[in-house]
Write a structure and sequence with these properties.
8 helices; Helical scaffold and wing domains of SecA; elongated; mainly alpha; single chain
Length: about 250
């Protein structure tokens, strides 16, 4: 056959159609897998961006912070430091900046632990700090702390998710479905993200100190600008030109 002559064989045409169909099916499966993986991050992104938008608009700042303090306290008392009163007492000191009585620590971490008295103590301390700072200043502090914690921890979460996605296909060698494992471990990382944000926000809100403008040290008085240095040769020429010439009256200064 000469170059450019069309092939009119039915067998060749059917073979090409079958090959093209297989390629399209394979590409469809690839796109479907990518969408399923991206759907996990899309849901997490919408959740965290929704929380961040509420914080930016100042919606329920106090209620959100108080809820974070209670969640962080209960999780550490009933899960992390369960049956370890001394460890919980030390954590409380580091976390909130004041000492917790040992009997309250024991009551919160024993077999039938009840962190309610400790939570009431924290709420009382929070109310005192709010009265010291004022409502407006307290809301500004809470807004700043929340935004900073969300932004920083979300970036860390994105790095963790990328690392998980890079090696998730290896789970197939262990007879596991990579997509299901990715969804499970991605959700676990997302829960860890919120736990980290809650711990950080509750700690900073209870410990941060705000220096008011009136307590700031007075600014130093502005210094007069220094005169530019003049070379000695130029200074001599300038002085000589200012001297009166013979026969000419001196110039008025």
């Amino acid at each position: 056959m000469k170059q450019g002559v069309p092939i009119e064989s039915g067998m060749v045409t059917r073979a090409i159609e079958r090959a093209q169909r297989k390629v399209e099916d394979r590409n469809f499966e690839i796109r479907k897998n990518l969408l399923e993986y991206d759907d996990v991050m899309d849901k997490q992104r919408k959740t965290i961006y929704g929380v961040r938008q509420d914080v930016l608009e100042g919606k329920g700042l106090k209620e959100r912070v108080v809820e974070m303090i209670g969640t962080s306290l209960r999780r550490n008392a009933l899960e992390v430091w369960h049956l370890d009163a001394a460890g919980f007492q030390a954590w409380f000191q580091r976390q909130f900046g004041f000492e917790l009585p040992l009997e309250l620590a024991r009551a919160a971490t024993d077999k039938n632990g009840d962190p309610t008295p400790v939570l009431q103590l924290l709420e009382q301390r929070y109310t005192e700090r709010e009265a010291e700072m004022g409502d407006a200043m307290m809301r500004q502090v809470e807004r700043y702390i929340l935004l900073n914690a969300i932004d920083q921890r979300w970036k860390d979460h994105l790095y963790a998710i990328d690392s998980l996605k890079q090696g998730i296909h290896l789970r197939a060698y262990a007879q596991q479905d990579p997509k299901n494992i990715y969804k499970q471990e991605g959700f676990a990382l997302f829960q860890k993200l919120f736990a980290t944000i809650e711990d950080e926000v509750s700690s900073l809100v209870m410990r941060i100190e705000v220096r008011r403008p009136e307590n700031a040290p007075a600014a130093a008085a502005p210094r007069a600008p220094a005169r530019p240095a003049v070379p000695a040769s130029m200074a001599f020429d300038l002085a000589r030109r200012q001297q009166p010439r013979p026969g000419n009256p001196p110039r008025p200064s």
